[in-house]
Amino acid sequence: MIFSKKQYFLYIASLLFLIFISYFFIDKTVAKYFITNKETFETLGDFISIWGESHWYFATAIIGFIIFKFIKKTELFAQRFLFLLYINLFSGLISLVLKNIFGRIRPWGLREGGDTYGFLLFQNFEMGFIEKMKHHFFTLINAPTTYSSFPSGHTTTVFAAFTYLCILFPKYFYLWLSIATILVFGRILDSDHFVSDIFAGIIVGTLSAMFIYSKMKEKIEKKY
Question: How far apart are CA 40 and CA 206, in angstroms?
Fold first, then answer.
């Protein structure tokens, strides 16, 4: 599952284009719809979102590695579970860094007729640089969850796992894609993320997994 530079470029460019379109033309409309219909969708969204939480994947990776490294002593499978652990650590770290850089407010800013929308990074340019950075920092300190919408961490985790499964079991691509799509849609149903946050999470999750794969390819494909 190695792609050419052109394919990577087209993939990233396509998702960046979708992020742009979503931010200016789709995000608010979709978010307001699900906020307005909160009683109908939120419970389902919360339930679906549970399965996109990173601790499931960390636990699976650690338990699997221990079993196959020290009990079954099957090095190939031990390395594959280690691969799962690494992609979740790496993608999660990248996602966390980007969340703090962009400081995007969640759809919660649109609740009860509100119109708070956008990224802290691209606001308050009337301030001096130092004042803007201080405002950015203290806003994140005081409301870290509120200003952590972009990219979606759940989507990052889900699509890192999706890429992992596609690498090891490529013939089930459409099954993995269907499951991943359902899981990330839960973040929109429960009004915790915008559509563009989802696209950003897809980029971070898939590219992080492919980067780690490029470093571990021989170990996870080698026949011991």
Answer: 31
Q: Which residues contact 77 (CB under 8 A, 6 or more apart)?
A: 64, 68
DSSP 144: T
Domain ranges of the chain: 14-221
217 burial (CB, 10 Å; 0-12 / 13-18 / 19+) is middle
Within 8 A by CB and 6+ apart from 44, the residues are: 186, 189, 190
- Calpha distance 10→186 (Å, rounded): 27
Question: Does the pTM of the predicted model rise above 0.90?
Answer: yes
Q: Over the stretch 196-217, which tens digit does the pLDDT of each residue have?
A: 999 999 999 999 999 999 999 9
Residue with tokens 């794969």: 213
Instruction: Write the CATH number of the domain with boundaries 14-221.
Output: 1.20.144
Q: Quote the CA–CA distance of 69 and 140 in Å, as a whole number.
A: 41
Residue 72: both structure tokens together: 């079954």
pLDDT tens for 7-30 read: 999 999 999 999 999 999 999 999
**Phi, psi at residue 51, to the nearest 5°?**
-80, 0
pLDDT, tens digit, for every residue of 102-128?
999 999 999 998 999 999 999 998 999
Task: Return the structure tokens found at 12.
Answer: 């990233």
